[in-house]
Structure formats: structure tokens, C-alpha cells
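Holo prediction. Input below; ligand is cobalt (II) ion.
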Amino acid sequence: MIKQGENFRRNRDGIRLFGESDFAGMHRAGALASHILDEICELVYPGQTTEVLDKFVEDKVKDAGATSATIGYRGYQHASCISINHVVCHGIPSSKKLKDGDILNIDVTVIVDGWYGDTSRMYVAGTLSRKVERLIQVTHDSLFKAIEAVKPGNAFGDIGHAIQSYVEGERMSVVRDFCGHGLGRVFHAPPNVLHYGRPGSGPVLEEGMFFTIEPMVNLGRPETKVLADDWTAVTRDKSLSAQFEHSIGVTATGYEIFTVSQNNRFHPTYS
Ligand code: MF3
Ligand code: CO
Ligand code: CO
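Structure of the complex:
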């Protein structure tokens, strides 16, 4: 008996290669995730709780007739991860209030018609210091330097190198303990997309690959630890951490970003 299922191509590294029509599905999923992150801007201010922000995400996903990829994922129970200040990633929404000057990453993953859209950005509650502004800017720019390296024939190591060389040149550090990932019809697929590396190393990019790039950058040292809740990852030295994430597809000549902000709100200062 032959098992019914989708026929799809994988390359020699076991990375799935999608076809032309699959890009449209990823754009629909990416647009919803990004639209929710556009709209949540208005709700981020001192005194706000992250569980209210999470409820907003959950409701928006439901209103769109879509599904949250994170609710029920390995026991996670929320529609977003919200990581404040020295939290690197996987912060759990709670009733704690945001304080003036807090920086936070909100990470949302939705499923639309079976396609996954995964994106995160930084937000600021109240006023922003120059030092923190620079952390956010460098993290944002490191993602875009990496995206510029996305084209067939380049290697995943070129992506990692673009991030690492830029961030370390700015005297900040790249987190090693978490990486980007292939995605498409599943949340996390090969390859691991490292945010550091040597040029030319790792698998070669091919047209039809879908993956995230999601660098986490620390003002201090790169080491992290996971708290007793088994999710919250923090910097060991308690230094501030920032992250931006896009879901991307490789085209014949370069890339398409599935999670672009329709309102140019990807960066907290809208630049
Ligand atoms: N969205 C995260 C990522 O970028 C994964 C979150 S998994 C969760 O890969 F369970 F913590 F939500
Ligand atoms: Co991701
Ligand atoms: Co994410």
C-alpha cells in the first residue's frame, strides 16, 4: 500500500524545495503575522501587561480564521512569545506590567491554509535611551545584511557570517544557543539557520527553500540560560538582548520576504 501524501522535492541536504505556487501560500501566512505585529504597536506602553498583548494576538488570529502555531506547541500555551529586556527569546506572557524604557520582542507564528508565517520585531514602552536604540538598530540591520546574502549559490554560512561580522564589529554579541529554521507546511524544519559562521560553509541555498532568519543580539556576552519555567531564555550576564525575525523564500535571483510590514512598521522607529 502506498501512503497518500504530498509529493515534494528535497535537496541532497534534506532541505525541502517548494514550487512557484507555494510562495503565494507563504505570503498569505506571513502577511497575517506581520499585520498583527503592525496593529499591536498601539498597545505597547508603560503599564500594559504582556498577557493583554498576547490576548490581542490570539483574538486577531482567530478573527482571521487562522490558527496559532505556538498554542499547544511542545506544551506552550500562548499565541505569542514576549521577551522583555534581558530575555533573549521565548518569554511567556504574564500579568506583569511594562515599565517606562522596557524593550520587548513580540514573536508571532500563524498557520493559514496549512502555511506557517513566523515573524518577530522589537517594541519600546515609553522612552528609549541611545544605548538601547543602537542595540535595536544593529540587530535590525544585521537581519537585513543577512537577507542580502540570500540567493541561490550562496551558502547558509554566508548568512551567519553577515550577521556575526557586522554585530561583533559593533562590539555586540550574537546568541549561539538559538537559530533560525526551515518552515513551510511545518513550524521547524531543516536546516538550522545559524546566525554566525564562516563564509561558504554549510548547505548551499537553492531556489524554493523557505526559512527564517532571526538573529538575537546581546549588549554583553552571548551566553544564555533557560529559566525554571523551561521556556524563558535570558542572557547569563543580564545584559539587554534584541531580536528581529523574517520568514523568507529563495527565488531564482534572490529572495522574497513573506513577513514584510504593509505599513513600514517593522522597525520601532518606523525607519
Ligand atoms: N516563533 C519562535 C521561532 O521563531 C518559536 C516559538 S515556539 C514557542 O521559532 F513554543 F515558544 F512559542
Ligand atoms: Co522562527
Ligand atoms: Co518566531
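The chain has a mean pLDDT of 96. That is the main takeaway for now.
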